[in-house]
């Protein structure tokens, strides 16, 4: 409960400062790269983002090699067929050798407030999963809760609606989407990696039933953007393919290979002069974990928690604040806490899955879409051992 109150208090504290602010709410409205392409004029539209990273473990007792990586480079293409119909795709190259399609959706504008979308889309959960371009978060690597609690970059195939209601200062999304692959002969979910191994990424995905993903953002108060998201459904399993409905043993096995997921996300972003404050909070309630862990104990699983929790608070300040310059130097400090065994059923809680993370460093923006970053990240788990330290440096671009 103390951990939950921590993030709530941070959000309330930031809102309390708002009385002195203006009320130009459009300044609080955020767009990721795909949305910016949708709002760009012209038939064929091109964009992209990427980053090169250096990661060096730091230890007084052990020497370790560093890692140099062209972590990702992404090309984004958009095409406008007519005034109402657009297509956007995001082609990602990771670690030089891996290729992914991260987004590929067709949008049709029904009204000024309502768009229909179909295809491969980002799950609208939190900040980083949608705004994962390097200029939108501090630190070289994405926050760890957006790796293990919300497995960024989390995307699946679906259909649904999105839009802006400017008079009410609301942005919304609601989709029926494909769920996680929970079992395909092996368990894909567990305590160490959380839900990350279940992402299907539209790579010949399997589906038994669709899941629901919704998010509402409110941007009507000066400097503040608030988001509330929900995700509800069940994981998918290959055991349902060709299932004889009269075979009770096979039905029980298939039912044991899936879990239900009810995820809630709260996020806040606040800016005032040079101050930048952001926070995320996630809670995942996972059902049927007792049967799932028993069924997958000899199939690469057996340790999935029945609840996961994660949050962070991030504070930065632009020490070169000037309305006439693109140059920005932003020292920052972020505290994160996440636990993939926040609650367990029929298994023992593993304290090694409870992590506290302190990240501090700076971001130097030399242009609107170009940033150099460096940070020191300290990670400590619940077993009582000390912090593991890593020094990170790199640059990111968005265009």
Provide a descriptive summary of the structure in words.
- By secondary structure, the chain is mainly beta.
- The chain has one domain (2-398): Beta Barrel (Porin), CATH 2.40.160.10.
- It has five helices and 18 strands.
- The strands form two sheets. A 16-stranded antiparallel beta barrel has the order 1-2-3-4-5-6-7-9-10-12-13-14-15-16-17-18. Strands 8-11 form a two-stranded parallel sheet.
- Strand 9 (211-221) and strand 10 form a beta hairpin.
- The radius of gyration is 21 Å and the shape is globular.
Task: Itemize the secondary structure elements and their pairings.
Layout: H1 2-16, H2 33-38, E1 44-58, E2 67-80, E3 85-94, E4 98-111, E5 114-122, H3 145-148, E6 155-165, E7 170-177, E8 181-183, E9 211-221, E10 224-234, E11 236-237, H4 248-256, E12 260-272, E13 275-287, H5 289-296, E14 307-317, E15 328-343, E16 354-367, E17 370-381, E18 388-398
Parallel strand pairs: 8-11
Antiparallel strand pairs: 1-2, 1-18, 2-3, 3-4, 4-5, 5-6, 6-7, 7-9, 9-10, 10-12, 12-13, 13-14, 14-15, 15-16, 16-17, 17-18
At a glance:
The protein has five helices and 18 strands. The chain has helices at residues 2-16, 33-38, 145-148, 248-256, 289-296, and strands at 44-58, 67-80, 85-94, 98-111, 114-122, 155-165, 170-177, 181-183, 211-221, 224-234, 236-237, 260-272, 275-287, 307-317, 328-343, 354-367, 370-381, 388-398. Strands 1-2-3-4-5-6-7-9-10-12-13-14-15-16-17-18 form a 16-stranded antiparallel beta barrel. Strands 8-11 form a two-stranded parallel ribbon.
């Amino acid at each position: 409960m103390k951990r939950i109150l921590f993030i709530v208090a941070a959000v309330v504290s930031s809102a309390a400062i708002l009385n002195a602010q203006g009320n130009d709410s459009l300044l609080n409205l955020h767009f990721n790269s795909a949305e910016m392409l949708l709002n760009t004029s012209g038939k064929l539209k091109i964009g992209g983002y990427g980053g090169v990273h250096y990661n060096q473990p730091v230890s007084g007792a052990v020497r370790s090699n560093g890692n140099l990586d062209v972590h990702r480079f992404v090309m984004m293409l958009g095409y406008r067929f007519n005034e109402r119909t657009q297509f956007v795709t995001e082609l990602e190259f990771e670690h030089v050798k891996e290729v992914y399609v991260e987004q590929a959706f067709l949008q049709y504008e029904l009204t000024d407030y309502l768009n229909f979308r179909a295809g491969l889309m980002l799950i609208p959960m939190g900040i980083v999963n949608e705004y994962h371009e390097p200029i939108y978060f501090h630190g070289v690597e994405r926050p760890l809760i957006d790796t293990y609690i919300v497995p960024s970059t989390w995307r699946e195939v679906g259909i649904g609606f999105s839009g802006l209601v400017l008079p009410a200062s609301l942005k919304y999304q609601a989709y029926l989407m494909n769920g996680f692959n929970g079992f395909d002969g092996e368990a894909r979910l567990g305590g160490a990696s959380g839900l990350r191994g279940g992402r299907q990424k539209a790579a010949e995905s399997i589906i038994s039933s669709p899941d629901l993903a919704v998010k509402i953002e409110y941007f009507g108060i000066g400097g503040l953007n608030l988001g509330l998201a929900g995700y509800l459904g069940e994981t998918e399993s290959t055991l349902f393919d060709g299932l004889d409905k009269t075979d009770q043993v096979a039905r029980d096995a298939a039912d044991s290979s899936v879990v239900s997921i009810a995820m809630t996300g709260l996020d806040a972003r606040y800016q005032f002069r040079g101050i930048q404050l952001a926070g995320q909070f996630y809670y995942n309630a996972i059902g049927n974990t007792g049967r799932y862990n028993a069924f997958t104990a000899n199939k690469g699983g057996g340790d999935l928690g029945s609840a996961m929790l994660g949050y962070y608070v991030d504070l930065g300040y632009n020490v070169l604040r000037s309305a006439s310059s693109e140059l920005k130097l932003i020292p920052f400090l972020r505290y994160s806490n996440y636990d993939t065994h926040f609650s367990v059923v029929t298994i023992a809680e593993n304290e090694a899955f409870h992590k506290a993370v302190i990240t501090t460093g700076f971001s130097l923006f030399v242009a609107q879409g170009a940033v150099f970053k460096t940070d020191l990240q300290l990670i400590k788990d619940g077993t009582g051992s000390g912090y593991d330290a890593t020094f990170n440096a790199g640059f990111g671009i968005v265009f």
